[in-house]
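Appendix C reproduces, verbatim, an entry submitted by the partner laboratory led by Prof. M.T., so that reviewers can inspect both the input and the predicted structure.
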Amino acid sequence: MVLVALLLAAPPAAPAACKGNPAVIGKCFTVHGRMRAYNGNPTFRIWPVGTKRIIGVTGAQPGEEPIMPGDLACGFSCDVLADFEVCPFSETKPGVMQRACIETASKKTIRQRE
């Protein structure tokens, strides 16, 4: 009975980390891009400027909460332009959105959309 009480009283697990996550399949890399919220899954997506690629910001598995710094989720009314350090959860394949998490974002600019 005491064990059950201790388990129920334990603090909630910390949010999953990006870099060092066991589901990451390759080296983390930096990409200069625009992150925007979309309807659908994943909600947050990064367009690397000057490419036709899209990187979906996800948790370790599709459909999980995105792993990214909290100050980046500004909603549907804005874009975040930054140098994103992302860690891949899936391989790069032509015509397929790559899944990744965001470790950090530097040189951030938040731009409101109309």
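Residues 41 and 63 are 7 Å apart (CA to CA). Additional entries are available on request from the coordinating office.
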